[in-house]
């Protein structure tokens, strides 16, 4: 009887440890690994090694777990057969009055052993490991390092087999969707404030936004003919609220650059008011309307510029996009200074279009629905 309990105990104990190790190892996050790595020491270095080559510790765990289950089952079964070999006791189970199944002590031992392995070496330890992985991580790393050395030949052979099934090891295990989900959870749990959560979500979706999504449309862009004199433009636009004004040659589709409002005022003070606006013209960044906002932001930073011309596929002007527009998109709010009369120029463009459409009879003023223009 002692050997029966001995084999059962050994099997459950080692299987319990394997389940703990597996749950902890798979629960450790990349962020925790980086933190431990920066702290230095054995734990951080081994964690990085395990995470970069995850099949190595997993091979050791599964090998030991399989051996424990197999040896335990064989030992318990052999001892049960030996101990009760002369026993004539059995429990007959009747199925619907037609079939009778005799259940002996060996079968009962097998059922008890199965339930013990299920609960004591699978469900309970994995639940403990998943919920307490932070506190169990150091123990897991140290003990797994020993097990890997003991089972090195078997681990090496397992790695040899599984290396052909591995995906790109440089591929991140976390996607943008994973980070977004973690941000939502952190906001609900109170670790992030609502405005912090909003900014992080906007940042994660930043790569999908194009210049046409945030630009000021062509219809509401204030532009000037570059041949207009500085004095003439100033007299017509004394209350100009824009700090940068694009310049065109002939039509708005021929944008040649832009000038700064401050430079225009400086030219007036310096008595250069009879010179054309082209004399204070500056170069303008030109991008396609499908240009990604992150790339445009990098251009603004590298060239120390604040405004860019957005053109369509045929080179015509679609609108203007500023550094302010990009930052507004990132922060998720409108940046309005004391001189801004309109927060969203795209809404203003839509309102102006509706006004013209009503005058032409394309929109019904009562229900504000578009009519067939044909």
**Fraction in beta strands:** 5-15%
Q: Could you give a short account of the major beta sheet?
A: 4 strands, mixed
Low-confidence parts, pLDDT < 50 over ≥5 residues?
A: 334-343, 359-363, 366-374
Helical element count?
A: 15
Look at the helices and sheets and give the structural class: alpha/beta
Radius of gyration: 37 Å
Describe this structure in words.
There is one protein chain. This protein is α/β, with parallel strands linked by helices and 374 residues long. Helices cover 57% and strands 12% of the residues. It contains 15 helices and nine strands. It has a four-stranded mixed β-sheet. Strands 4-5-6 form a three-stranded mixed β-sheet. Helix 1 crosses helix 6 and helix 8 packs antiparallel against helix 9. It is rod-shaped, with a radius of gyration of 37 Å. The C terminus is likely disordered.
Sum this structure up briefly.
With 374 residues, the chain is α/β, with parallel strands linked by helices. It is built from 15 helices and 9 strands.
Please name the defining characteristics of this protein.
three-stranded mixed sheet, 57% helix, 15 helices, alpha/beta, 374 residues, disordered C terminus
Secondary structure elements and pairings:
Blueprint: H1 2-27, H2 30-39, H3 42-52, H4 55-83, E1 91-95, E2 99-103, H5 105-131, H6 133-150, H7 152-162, H8 176-189, H9 194-204, H10 211-214, E3 216-217, E4 224-225, H11 230-236, E5 244-249, E6 251-260, H12 261-269, E7 285-288, H13 293-303, E8 307-311, E9 317-322, H14 323-331, H15 345-360
Parallel strand pairs: 4-5, 7-8
Antiparallel strand pairs: 1-2, 3-9, 5-6, 8-9
Helix pairs in contact: 1-4, 1-5, 1-6, 2-3, 4-5, 4-6, 4-7, 8-9
